[in-house]
């Protein structure tokens, strides 16, 4: 059973990335399923797909994936900005499965 719930309506807050990851799209899909939002406009960087989730502690995280948003998704490592409603990097990293 996952320790998170999807936020199909997206998030209410706007923040700069807490940190960035380089992951394969398949790793995001394996952990969080298909993105809740597809082909969003970043207002300058290009289109992206997004996963928006809430963990049991109420931490909300948005993962933006620019790879594949303008064409067929690839499984090459790609740049993933991680946004969260908390600036506690260790807490965010813990929920994403990384040692802070």
Task: Outline the structure in words.
The protein has 100 residues and is an alpha+beta fold. It has one domain (4-96). Helix content is 16%, strand content 37%. The protein is built from 2 helices and 6 strands; from the N terminus they run E-E-H-E-E-E-E-H. It has helices at residues 25-32, 89-96; strands spanning 4-6, 19-24, 37-41, 47-55, 60-65, 77-84. Strands 1, 2, 3, 4, 5 and 6 form a 6-stranded antiparallel β-sheet that branches. The two termini are 23 Å apart. 19% of the residues are buried. The model has no long low-confidence stretch (mean pLDDT 88).
Question: Helical segment tally?
Answer: 2
Largest sheet: 6 strands, antiparallel
Q: Strand tally, please?
A: 6
Which band does the percent of strand residues land in? 35-45%
Helical coverage, percent range:
10-25%
How confident overall, as mean pLDDT? 88
Going by helix content, strand content and strand pairing, the class is alpha+beta
- Report the end-to-end length measured between terminal Cα atoms: 23 Å
Q: Could you list the spans in which at least 5 consecutive residues all have pLDDT below 50?
A: none
Overall form: globular
- What is Rg? 13 Å
Order of helices and strands: EEHEEEEH
**Tally of structural domains:** 1
